[in-house]
């Protein structure tokens, strides 16, 4: 996978580096209510070292050529993250996860980025199936796979632990490599 991917004149994807931990933590810390509504990890992120552990893991998975996490940059400023998750090369499938800063919502950025990453995953990783799981009720996130031609497969009951003994159902969307050429 490429180290840097140009999406358009303003948007690019770049591999995470160790120094990104502080920026990611600052987004989480200053947008705790906004991001925490749908991202369970926010409540467990209390210090930069918590985020550093995630960044270190993402770098190790990339080095092992297992999963790839990118920072989404707008004019070289990080505004969110996107990446593959739990890639299964034997069965040729992966999941895409993502989040975007509140300040950049509603501009079509995430749809554009997910669409580009989907193409790269199919073309460069030899993957045949990509899934996106969205919490029931997270309409902004749900709109992205729908807009991009992913098929709703069903509901993963109690698919995500939101903390405080609360589980959320997840809507599972998928796209096959053969779907992208139809």
Counting H and I runs of at least 4 residues, what is the number of helices? 5
- What share of the residues does DSSP label as strand, in percent? 35-45%
Main β-sheet, spatial strand arrangement: 1-2-3-4-5-6-8-7
> What's the alpha carbon Rg, rounded to whole Å?
16 Å
Structural class: alpha+beta
Could you tell me the mean pLDDT? 94
- By DSSP, the count of extended strands is 8
Q: State the distance separating the first and last CA atoms.
A: 25 Å
H-E order:
EEHHHEEEHEHEE
Largest sheet: 8 strands, mixed
Shape: globular
What ranges have pLDDT less than 50 throughout 5 or more consecutive residues?
none
- The helicity comes to 25-40%
Walkthrough of the structure:
The protein is α+β, with helices and mostly antiparallel strands. The chain has helices at residues 20-30, 32-36, 48-63, 109-124, 139-147, and strands at residues 4-6, 11-15, 69-74, 77-88, 93-100, 129-135, 151-163, 166-176. The protein has an eight-stranded mixed beta sheet with strand order 1-2-3-4-5-6-8-7, with helices on both faces. Helix 1 crosses helix 3 (48-63). The mean pLDDT is 94.
């Amino acid at each position: 996978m490429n180290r840097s991917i140009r999406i358009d004149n303003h948007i690019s994807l770049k591999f995470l580096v160790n120094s990104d931990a502080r920026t990611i933590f600052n987004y989480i810390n200053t947008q705790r209510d906004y991001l925490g509504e749908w991202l369970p990890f926010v409540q467990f992120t209390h210090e930069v070292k918590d985020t550093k552990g995630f960044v270190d893991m993402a770098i190790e998975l990339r080095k092992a050529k297992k999963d790839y996490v990118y920072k989404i940059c707008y004019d070289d400023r990080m505004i969110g993250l996107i990446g593959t998750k739990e890639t299964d090369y034997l069965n040729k499938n992966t999941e895409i996860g993502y989040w975007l800063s509140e300040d950049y919502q509603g501009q079509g950025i995430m749809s554009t980025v997910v669409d580009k990453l989907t193409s790269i995953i199919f073309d460069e990783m030899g993957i045949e199936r990509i899934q996106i799981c969205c919490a029931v009720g997270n309409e902004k996130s749900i709109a992205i796979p729908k807009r991009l031609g992913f098929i709703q497969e069903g509901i993963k009951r109690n698919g995500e632990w939101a903390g405080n003994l609360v589980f959320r159902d997840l809507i599972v969307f998928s796209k096959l490599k053969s779907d992208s050429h139809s």
